[in-house]
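Example 3.
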Amino acid sequence: MAYRPEEKCPALLIVTYCVEMGNRSFSWYGVFAILLGSGIFKEEKGMHRNNVSDPYDYSPISRHVDGQNGEPCIERGHFFPPPSYYASVISHLLSQPDANSELEPNFLLPSLQNTERLFQSSGNKTFSKEASTLSQLPLYGMSNSSQFHNEHLQAKRARVENIIRGMSILPNSIVPDTFGESDEHHTEKEKNYRESKRKQKPPHQQSPHETPLARPGKISIQSDECLQLKKQLHLLQHQLKQLGKKFLQPCELSDSSPCQGSMGKAMYLLKEKLGQSLDNSSQAIVSNQLQDLSWKNISKTEGSKLSEKEAAVTDSHILTSEDSTLSEILKHELIQVVTQAVDSVLKKVLPDSPDLPSQMCNAPPVTVSSTGREFSGAGEKISRKWLPKFSSHKASTSRITEKPPGFPTYPISSKMERRSQANCPLIMTSEVQGNGIISQMLLCSQNGPWGNTPRMASSPESLDVPWQPIKLKSSIMRHQRHPVSLKLSEMESFASLAASKAEFSEMHGAVNEIPFPSTHIQEALTPGHLRKAKLMFFFTRYPTSSLLKAYFLDVQFTRCVTSQLIKWFSNFREFYYIQMEKFARQAFLDGITDPNDLIVSRDSELFRTLNTHYNKGNDFEVPDGFLDVASLTLREFFGAIKGGKDLDPSWKKPIYKIISKLDGKIPDTFKSSSCLQEAIQG
DNA sequence: GCTCGACCTG
DNA sequence: CAGGTCGAGC
């Protein structure tokens, strides 16, 4: 049987990542093994390559550098047995629901002894020349063994075997020292050594000291451990079931829910197919996986490639190409789920590793749908595209109703910048870290403060909210299906989950950026301060440093802080003037002649743009004074453009001078550290 | 020489 | 949003 690199198994690749990146997330093995064993995890062509330009480079290891000689310890290449091999392994596991039945270690590890021989070999090099004996071994059906005479390739193979062995012998999913030696060698010193070694670099290969596999006479122990692995698999099955149920519930509640779409169809198709080949246990797993996928699908709001797939499913080819369709859907979804999950967890588990994990795999371009800006579609009314609304009595006469050639389309950012927070955050505190990913997801689903998130995502708040300011409408409420005030105590409880104050500050900003009411003088500006500064911009465009000091009483003003605040306002002005110029030019191009036609009202496009920038949550009522200033600014720009003054390089300066005199009084509520809530509440 | 603000860039 | 540059004003 010819070996084809296309047959390499991504699930095992991911497992390899887990092992290498810290030996801490062993429970993943079970998950991926099940995914693999289910037969539904197939490689998306090119998705998991380490090197995009190299169709054969699937090895995350290849980027690691050997600490001794500076060379890549393992070159890219083909070292994975075909997936059918692993599939048979997993199937074997799954087909033995009896936890007491022992698993033959050699079934998992066909070249066990030779691996041992490899690791028993001594020498300065990690893989000595003795390893070449491996080339005499069966090569997983590869027809041409000569290519494996290369030392590096042998090393690869041995390494993968080592990983597989780790899978088979390790009972505890959360034991960090996955490949530790036996107890008698577990001196504290060694533990520390491994710990530090892990921190220094992602472990790219197991040294002879670190592999228990090099020790003969361990088969019985390994059998016990295989037993435990099986138990773990069953536990994972159970967790998967729970997870699936959890996520499928909202799907089943509504007939019109999106799970009736492609994923529902995919589930049906797959269940039918699997019924022919998998035993009940496997079916349950796969079914639950699909439920999970359905949930993921629900949480998608737009821009999913799946919609294309969905179209493919619903078309008439369904009966003739259902296999490929099913495969496509599942591949896409699985890869997304797995990649995101891996990234999330590894980021948390190994925060010190700079090249993890989004970079580590040259990640498959799993597109978490961008929350970036979109541009107005063709349906947008021309009268609102650019313009501050005309005064009503003139609108009928001066409004442009046709789009002139070359009419630029501007972003309607107000709608688009609403952040999609569909992702259920994985809270990786020390308490939950040990529970494995599924437990975490369950935890998140049940207890997490964002527990409603998946459902929210499935039915996001209407984007077409009236553009009038909505008081008391915090962005937290926007993100909750059933608005619940987030009280201080709750915020603090979140804080307790964070490892550090800085982390909380970050999370705090991410949640809503409402300044944490505190008398504590902060040494640095927070996202809350930024938000406050933006709102202050509605009142003042050119604040002095003394004014800023008067309004940021909870900040310890240093030179750095002051300049940062000044810089913020500089950036605010920059955006403001850019928008003014843009809209003024467009008005000019549209044939407006009278500057008095230009009025920035609350439902004008310009206002939307500005409001989105400075008042993202739309939870602050923009003062009328700002509208007046904006209108004046727009007219000044318009007048200058109309008069051809923009030919002068410094034509904006007079405008800046005018606008700088229009600063108004900032409400005193901004002075209090909890000003934002007060300001929002009016 | 210093500060400030606009402008450019990543 | 932050860093750097440049010119203007004092």
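The CA atoms of residues 358 and 587 of chain A lie 44 Å apart. The mean pLDDT of chain A is 49.
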